[in-house]
Design goal:
The strands form two sheets. The chain has a six-stranded mixed β-sheet. The chain has a four-stranded antiparallel β-sheet with strand order 2-1-4-5. By secondary structure, the protein is α/β, with parallel strands linked by helices. It has one domain: 3-Layer(aba) Sandwich (Rossmann fold), CATH 3.40.50.300. It contains seven helices and ten strands. The radius of gyration is 18 Å and the shape is globular. Bound molecules: adenosine-5'-triphosphate (ATP) and magnesium ion (MG). The site of magnesium ion has 2 residues, from helix 1. Magnesium ion binds next to helix 1.
């Protein structure tokens, strides 16, 4: 089976006034199903940009991003959007829920381009139940608490059952209990056979026993990764 995501020699340059600035500099790594990988780095290191590249929301200047084996960088945008909807779930730092829509409608949003089926609706309900917000399915997003919104955004990211789940700072502004529960959720979602990439400064996530790898990004450059020797102190989900 192809890796959920394969990032090869990815460079991203952006225009900065009259100059061009390298934001992501020759980054390569793989995300396999079952991986729960943390992306760390100081503010401005390029974490959000790298997540957008991995999720095929942004095209690399050079290099290639393969999602479930498919090269994405030179696809027409309509095709790329299709690949993205089926191969990646994304939880944005600001969640990006639509306030006027119910929790359920928000979860079903990514299914609209392909047509929402009865199976999708059942799956959306199941996901909301799983994250403890099933009773809020009909509640408009604007009436939800921060933690409830986060759960709805996570359910939405899982609606297509994509092999890759990407989260940008999922524990910003939440308390320790909820951070621990998110870390636990991510661990079980990885165990089910997804690859998960989570950008975070949060030691409550980064030090979780189920993390399989930590990627350190600084100035757009990934720190060298140990080969085989960078296993966490505790067994990975596979090793149990
Ligand atoms: N389209 C763009 N045009 C100009 N500069 C950009 C663009 N995209 C990103 N940058 C710059 O690239 C750098 C990396 O930004 P990015 O948002 O990826 O960092 P980050 O690691 O997510 O930071 P934070 O922890 O604050 O969220 C920043 O200096 C940012 O200003
Ligand atoms: Mg960021």
């Amino acid at each position: 089976m192809a890796a959920a995501a394969s990032i090869r020699d990815v460079v991203k340059r952006v225009r900065d006034g009259r100059d061009r600035r390298t934001v992501i500099d020759n980054v390569s790594f793989e995300l396999e199903r079952g991986d729960l990988v943390v992306l760390r780095g100081p503010s401005g290191a390029g974490k959000t940009t790298l997540l957008a590249l991995v999720g095929a929301m942004l095209s690399p200047t050079s290099g290639e991003v393969f999602l479930d084996g498919e090269a994405t960088s030179r696809l027409r945008e309509s095709h790329r959007a299709h690949v993205r909807r089926h191969k990646v779930g994304f939880v944005f730092q600001d969640l990006q829920l639509i306030d006027a829509m119910s929790a359920l409608e928000n979860v079903l949003l990514p299914r609209i381009p392909d047509g929402v089926t009865a199976t999708d609706a059942r799956r959306a309900h199941t996901l909301l139940e799983r994250f403890g917000v099933g009773a809020l399915a009909a509640t408009p997003a604007r009436a939800l608490s921060g933690g409830e919104r986060q759960r709805v955004a996570l359910a939405r990211a899982l609606i297509a059952d994509a092999p890759l789940l990407i989260l940008d700072e999922p524990t910003a502004h939440i308390d320790d209990a909820r951070a621990a529960s998110i870390a636990g959720e991510l661990a079980s979602l990885a165990r089910e056979g997804r690859a998960i990439l989570v950008a975070t400064h949060d030691a409550r996530i980064a030090s979780h026993a189920a993390i399989t790898r930590v990627l350190d990004l600084a100035g757009g450059v990934l720190a060298p990764q140990a080969r085989g020797g960078d296993a966490p102190a505790t067994p990975t989900p596979y090793a149990r």
